[in-house]
Amino acid sequence: MGSSFFYRRLASPLHATRAWVGALWIVSLTEAALILYHPLVLLALLLGVLGAGWGARVGARLSRSLRTALIVAAPIVLVNVLVSRQGLTVFARLGDLGPFGQGNLTLEALAYGGVIALKVALLILVTALAGLAVDPDELLRIFRRFSFRSALTATLATRMLPVLAADSQRLAEAQRTRPGGAPGGTRGKVALISAVVGGSLDRAMDVAATLEVRGFAGPPPARGSAVRPPRPSRLGFSARAGRTRAPRRAFSRHDLAFVASALAVLALATVGRLAGIASFDAYPRIEMALDPGTLVLCAALLTAVLLPFCDRRGIDP
Amino acid sequence: MSGALISFEQVTYHYPDAERPALQDVSVELHPGEFCLLAGLSGCGKSTLLRAACGLVPHFHGGRFAGRVEVAGLDTREHGPARLGAFAGALFQDPETQLVTSSVRAELSLALESRGEGASAVARGVEEVALALGIDALLDRSTHELSGGEQQRVALGAALAGRPRVVLLDEPTSQLDPVAGDELIGLLRRLNQEWETTIVLAEHRLERCLSAADRVIALDAGRVVCDGAPADFVGWASAHSPALQTPGAKLFAIAGLSPAPVGVRQARATLRANGLLPEPDDPAPQPQPSRRGRRRSAPQPALALDGVWHELRDGPAILRGASLELMAGETVALMGRNGAGKSTLLRHAAGLLRPTRGRIERAGRVALLLQNPGDYFIHEHVAQETSQRALAAAGLEQLARRHPRDLSGGERQRLALAIVTDGETPAVLALDEPTRGMDRSGKAELAQELRRRAGEGQAVIVATHDPEFAAACARRAVLLADGRVIADGPTAELLAGGWYFATETARILGGAGGALLPEQGAELLRRERPVQAVPA
Questions:
Q1: Over the stretch A221-269, which tens digit does the pLDDT of each residue have?
Q2: In chain A, which residues have their Cβ closer than 8 Å to the Cβ of B152?
Q3: Against a cut of 0.95, is the pTM above it?
Q4: Domain extents in chain A
Q5: Which CATH number belongs to the domain containing residue B57 in this structure?
Q6: In terms of residue numbers, what domain contains B98?
Q7: Is residue A86 helix, strand or coil?
Q8: Measured between CB atoms, does A162 come within 8 Å of chain B?
């Protein structure tokens, strides 16, 4: 089902945090993946993200994203080996390639390509985890304070994705029930695609009509200047309740745990990078620290990422 | 204006490029606290009238607009839907396209946030509307994982969150099972009575909501042809528009009784007063859970499902050992609540899905017509969609050059049926909710077509929420619940004794004699008390 790749509220500590905390935690993982280069550290982070996926009950869906990530990452290794002219340890000679010079494939280029591929795979997984476990509506609502329309348009786009995925699945299913099966050949495929596009335009019109009647096309909202019909309330609250202040939402144990985890990951990655712990250089020769400091950094990152998932109190949606 | 909340003054409206007006010289006034039902055949202008009342006509659809519509004193030519939305909430047919955000809470908040309400007022408004509609348990759910009934309730909640003074609803029960449909009508009645919210409801299955209404406006070709109390409407429909007659009114008309009843309660009271209420039968023999094993010596079935399971990976089981046999020439109505597994069962029958356990045997091709006929149309012209022979058989040759999306609802349904049944005659014809959004005459035509196909030897199975349609086309009914067949027997037994899965005639007559349709009910009344029948 198309919808299995989109956010669903599940009983997990990550789903139980407020969206900006989840986003902060995701940003910390992204920062660590970007600034650290040691393969062991990146593997520890990868393990941490996959473990977090299981902890957030989206492990199976994250595993499917891992497959996609590997498909994207594999060509990076290949291209780097073929293109890079750096490195001293040649493991294959392709001879003279004319304007491209000598085609010497080096172990260093292979290793560096592997590291970059690992980073890309990690970033894809982190993004997938964010999509699956951080509420996009709540996150976009934060941005509505700055630009209501833009944030709502982005919300609408996130909502339309599963709707359109379901529409195309339905259309494809209907074509399979034709006596001869779905029309084949280029013309058949073009007809099918144009039907999907046509259907999505119909959908867009329906959604636009709904937005109109919900007040989207009205004047931009200003705080405290709501347009409301003067109407006596029978429910015991005044139509002017908008003037009252909303009490601050208290931090939950999971909010605090993920903020702590995010700060710890940010600190470990930054300090590790600045202090030269877990150093890695691919060129001209592979130099990779395998000292206790590196191992401690790996363990600390893994612990910081996974620890918030151990507390499973109060996670029910 | 005489205290009217909505007033139409001589409104005539043409959609862009349309030759005929969708509304013609319409003048009506709707007052605060009214529960008004809009009746009429497909294409009569009900939806257009609702869209004019919320400002989508003409602001969103364009076209030519004459006359004047005022909502709470605001002229809709000067104020767009966004401004009118503060007074009029709208709920259209397809709930999926009316949910514009990813979570239920965000959906309910949207209208309030759009109007610039403060966080406290938004939170409070969401809480109140969720409690009022009984959807508080759904607040943290994603909108794309809700069932059809839940989506409809959430969409209604979103329309009500801004506490509008009038709610406009366009066939909101068309995708709901009888239980969810009745719940929704009850909910609207409660909103109307407790909050004095004006309700304007367009609906085809009038018997479902007529007794809840204070007033009925009937439209024909864009004109108001009847405007009165429900009792006046049923009398008018009996005399002038039989296609709008409720089954109860039709029963009384055939039996020569009067006055035409508005609902089951009034019909029973009239029958009782005239000594015509039949005594309830002895408890009917209980329908069997399955016919498996009873037909060992019978001929080869056209379709046989044997202990079919459909278990989702990381999810629930949709079918739990469903067993069913269909013989050639048999017409079966498959009924059950939303989510009972009807559509999944039909997909298995047609081979679109593979059972995780169990076995399916087919005597030949199974043609499946899915819920939305529009999903079959991928070409520019009707002629390209299927063979000339199939078009001729469906009576659509004269529309061959038209675009499939320009066809009417009934024509689309016929074209989709022609597509799936083209070529080799199918052994089994399966239809998934084919009467969605269809008026009574369209349903009668389809029922006749299905009976014809069954007469030619095809086995027909129809998943439907409409007991009247099931009774009209099927001899056998199967009730599915929680992925299992819980009852399987003659339609007259299964649909005569229930509350929700029962026709109006059966409810009026208390299931007596297994009468499901007005004609059968009238015959029963004549047979039981031939002398006492009260002339109309």
A1: 554 444 444 343 443 333 344 445 556 778 999 999 999 999 999 999 9
A2: none
A3: no
A4: 37-134+260-308, 135-176+197-211
A5: 3.40.50.300
A6: 6-245
A7: coil
A8: yes
